[in-house]
Amino acid sequence: MVDLHWNKAFALEQTAGDEELLEELLTLFKESSAGDYHQLQLGVAQGDAAAVMRAAHSLKGAAASLGIEGIRQLALEMEADGRNNSVEVARGKLAAMGELLEQLHQL
Questions:
Q1: Cβ within 8 Å of residue 10, ≥6 positions away
Q2: How many Å apart are CA 14 and CA 65, to the nearest integer?
Q3: Is 15 helix (H, G, I), strand (E, B) or coil?
Q4: In this structure, are residues 26 and 66 in contact, taking their beta carbons and an 8 Å threshold?
Q5: What residue ranges define each of the domains in the chain, with the CATH number in brackets?
Q6: Would the pLDDT of 1 be above 90?
Q7: DSSP string spanning 86-106?
Q8: Digit-coded pLDDT (tens) for 18-54
Q9: Residue 9 pLDDT exceeds 90
Q10: 67 CB contacts (<8 Å, ≥6 apart)?
């Protein structure tokens, strides 16, 4: 099992302590991550490294801004592999990303 490693204190710093804003940002990330994950799945299925790279980049940025290290790190690995014209890391870790995104929805 993989872990989100969410640094809520960091996320609150990013919102100047505004819990309501943090909840809104989390909701937006939960919504957008579904589309990014779908794009990851398609990219892997089609062997499209550029699509994997774009989707992973989007996930990485959103996760980083919210202090969600587990998703950020995994997306970073997928993005780097995509930049090398490969989908193998994404293929091997797609299920782990799915688990992390499921955990995200529990926040």
A1: 67
A2: 7
A3: coil
A4: yes
A5: 8-104 (1.20.120.160)
A6: no
A7: --HHHHHHHHHHHHHHHHHTT
A8: 999 999 999 999 999 999 999 999 999 999 999 999 9
A9: yes
A10: 6, 7, 8, 9, 10, 11, 14
